[in-house]
Specification:
single chain, 214 residues, alpha/beta, six-stranded parallel beta sheet, 54% helix, 14% strand
C-alpha cells in the first residue's frame, strides 16, 4: 500500500516512515511543507496520505488545504489528518468533502501503534477514522440541534461510536449488547435525523458526519 507522509517535525516524520514501513506500507515520499505535499499527492496518487494540518511556510492550514486541493484533482484520494489539538474548523472542512476515505486523529494516538495502523488502513480502504475526542467535540457543538435532542442517551452513544468508524459488531462489543439491538438503534438514529438507512458502514458514517457539520 503506497503512502505519502507530510510532517514538518523531522523526528516524527522519520518515526512515521519507520512505523508504516514496518507494517508493509510503501512510503513513496515524505515531505515537510504544503507545496511539496500537493506536488507529491498529485504526482504519486498514493493509496493514502498521512498529513499534518499545520505545515510551513505559515504553519496555519497548509497541510489540509494541500490535501483538499489534491482531492479535487484526484477525486476520492484517501486522507488521514494528524493534528496536535482538536480544531473543529479543519475537521468540518475535511468532512464536508465526503468522497473517499477520510480521517482525523490527534497526534497522541500515534503512540498506540495498532490503533494508528488500523486507522491508516481503514482510510485507505475508503472508510472513516475519527478520533473519539474530535467526535465528542463535534457532537457537543451540535447538541442543541433539534433532531439530536430526539435521540435517547443510548442512541447518542451509538451515534458517537458510529462516527468513530466502528462497525455494528464493534459497537455491540463496546456496549455489551447484541448486534440486533445496535441495528435497531441505528435505524432509529437515521429515522430521527431524517437520513436514509444504509448497510454501507462508510456511507453511513459519512452521512452522519455530514449532517453534524451542515
Amino acid at each position: 500500500m503506497r503512502v505519502v507522509i507530510a510532517e514538518d517535525l523531522a523526528l516524527l516524520r522519520d518515526g512515521l516512515i519507520r512505523l508504516l514501513t514496518a507494517y508493509d506500507f510503501e512510503v513513496v515520499e515524505a515531505v515537510d511543507n504544503g507545496p511539496s505535499l500537493l506536488r507529491a499527492l498529485t504526482t504519486h496518487r498514493p493509496d493514502v496520505a498521512v498529513v499534518d494540518v499545520r505545515l510551513p511556510p505559515t504553519f496555519t492550514d497548509e497541510g489540509l488545504q494541500a490535501a483538499l486541493t489534491a482531492r479535487r484533482e484526484v477525486p476520492g484520494l484517501p486522507v488521514l489528518i494528524l493534528s496536535q489539538h482538536v480544531e473543529q474548523l479543519y475537521a468540518r472542512e475535511l468532512l464536508s468533502d465526503s468522497t473517499g476515505g477520510v480521517g482525523y486523529l490527534l497526534k497522541d494516538r500515534v503512540s498506540n501503534v495498532g490503533q494508528f495502523v488500523e486507522s491508516v488502513r481503514r482510510v485507505a480502504a475508503g472508510g472513516t477514522a475519527m478520533d473519539p475526542e474530535v467526535v465528542s467535540q463535534l457532537l457537543a457543538r451540535h447538541a442543541r440541534e433539534e433532531p439530536l435532542l430526539q435521540l435517547t442517551p443510548r442512541e447518542s452513544e451509538v451515534l458517537g461510536l458510529m462516527a468513530e468508524g466502528r462497525s455494528n459488531a464493534a459497537i455491540a462489543g463496546k456496549l455489551f449488547i447484541t448486534e440486533k439491538a445496535i441495528s435497531k438503534h441505528t435505524n432509529n438514529i437515521f429515522s430521527k435525523l431524517r437520513l436514509p438507512p444504509s448497510e454501507d458502514d462508510n456511507r453511513r458514517v459519512l452521512a452522519v458526519l455530514a449532517y453534524l457539520n451542515a
